[in-house]
Amino acid sequence: MSSVSFAQEREIPAPPKPKVKPDYSSLPKNPRKATILSAILPGAGQVYNGKSWKVPLIYGGFITDIYFINYNNRLYQVFKQALSDFDDELVTDFPSLNRDGLVRNVNYWRKNRDLCYLLLGGIYALNLIDANVDAHLSGFDVSDDIALKFEPHYERFSSNNTSVGLSIKLNF
To answer: How far apart (Å, rounded) are the C-alpha atoms in residues 115 and 135?
Structure first.
């Protein structure tokens, strides 16, 4: 028997499509500019978007988190030194704690400090996201003509079939 082999046909891939940049010209504020401003100086994107009342909240979050980073780090260092003194058989500031208690405290305060560092990054990211989303929504119409009403609803289908319920009406 003879075997016949066929050459496998290969499809020619289509050339890659050029990336199209999003057009933000119809929006009053440019989201990219707001995000870059907030990345360089936290709160600058909010000022650019006209929401400068958010800046004290952002800096309040940063200052509070930095305070707790310092607080947790101080206690971490105190218990770390106490553990070192306990291992060197010196007198510690915590005579009622054994080695396991000191280790638990060292781990607890280190974990809290590290979580506060993560929270600091989260506050910074939230600053960027808020500036971007607020710029995207800058062209959104929020006029007084928009209304959402809940009204009772009664409908009769036939002489003995009726429906009672609640309707939601959106007027704009």
So the answer is: 30
